[in-house]
């Protein structure tokens, strides 16, 4: 059993690890050759900026920016592929594409780069999915993500970081996309285990219906049976 869980854990880290490796390779190449790939970001409402829906998560401003996204991508991505294996690929793809599309539709006219929108989407999915499913194991993940990354919510308010050039739109739409896909897949993937005692409670709440019988007395027959003086 332990061996099976170990393999499952390792498998859940494969996709996030490969994605992060690609991010670092791109950044190293960009650094070595003195390239600036910022033009591959999402540029809202420009046809040329549509490519950024696909490419923007691969581009980061500097190594600090990349590192800040790498750790949560590994942890949150691993959690999704471990606990939500059946729906993980579909959920991640939706978060990835929907976040980029909505930034393109409603973001500021500037190049939006980085995978932070995806990070926010993954965190949002884990939090809301655990709440919706009401499963003890998944709620534990909800509390873990909230405890570790709860402060990320301030990233959707630009006034809190006036000195930083942060794409708060990516953060906001990442949260929204995670919530939407959590609701959409609420009946798929892992479900809360239902115990026998819950069925017994439901039966107790629905007792056998109680019926009362009513006898109808005809007024004429009533008069015949009684003598009047």
Overview of this protein structure:
- The protein has 9 helices and no strands.
- The protein is mainly alpha-helical.
- The chain is globular, with a radius of gyration of 28 Å.
Q: List unreliable stretches of 5+ residues.
A: 210-219, 221-229
Major sheet size, sense and barrel closure: none
The helical percent reads 55-70%
So what's the overall shape?
globular
Number of helices: 9
Order of helices and strands, N to C? HHHHHHHHH
Mean pLDDT: 84
Proportion of β residues?
Answer: under 5%
**SS-derived structural category:** mainly alpha
Question: Roughly how many Å apart are the termini?
Answer: 94 Å
The Rg value, from CA coordinates, equals: 28 Å
Extended strand count: 0
Itemize the secondary structure elements and their pairings:
Layout: H1 2-32, H2 52-55, H3 63-83, H4 88-106, H5 116-133, H6 136-149, H7 168-184, H8 196-205, H9 219-224
Helix pairs in contact: 1-3, 3-5, 3-6, 4-5, 4-7, 5-6, 5-7
Question: Which keywords apply here?
Answer:
single chain; 229 residues; mainly alpha; 9 helices; 0% strand
What's the quick description here?
The protein is mostly helical and 229 residues long. The protein has nine helices and no strands.
């Amino acid at each position: 059993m332990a061996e099976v869980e170990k393999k499952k854990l390792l498998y859940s880290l494969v996709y996030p690890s490969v994605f992060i490796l690609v991010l670092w390779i791109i950044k190293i190449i960009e650094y070595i050759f003195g390239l600036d790939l910022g033009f591959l970001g999402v540029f809202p409402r420009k046809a040329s900026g549509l490519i950024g829906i696909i490419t923007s998560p691969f581009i980061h401003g500097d190594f600090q920016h990349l590192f800040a996204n790498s750790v949560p991508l590994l942890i949150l991505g691993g959690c999704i592929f471990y606990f939500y294996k059946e729906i993980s690929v579909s959920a991640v793809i939706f978060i990835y594409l929907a976040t980029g599309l909505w930034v393109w539709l409603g973001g500021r006219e500037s190049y939006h780069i980085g995978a932070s929108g995806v990070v926010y989407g993954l965190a949002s999915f884990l939090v809301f999915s655990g709440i919706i499913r009401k499963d003890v194991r998944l709620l534990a993940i909800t509390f873990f993500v909230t405890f570790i990354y709860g402060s990320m919510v301030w990233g959707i308010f630009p006034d809190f970081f006036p000195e930083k050039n942060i794409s708060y739109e990516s953060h906001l739409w990442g949260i929204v996309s995670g919530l939407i896909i959590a609701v959409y897949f609420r009946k798929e993937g892992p479900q809360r285990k239902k115990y026998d005692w819950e069925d017994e409670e439901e039966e107790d709440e629905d007792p056998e219906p109680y019926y009362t019988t009513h006898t109808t007395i005809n007024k004429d027959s009533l008069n015949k049976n009684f003598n009047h003086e």
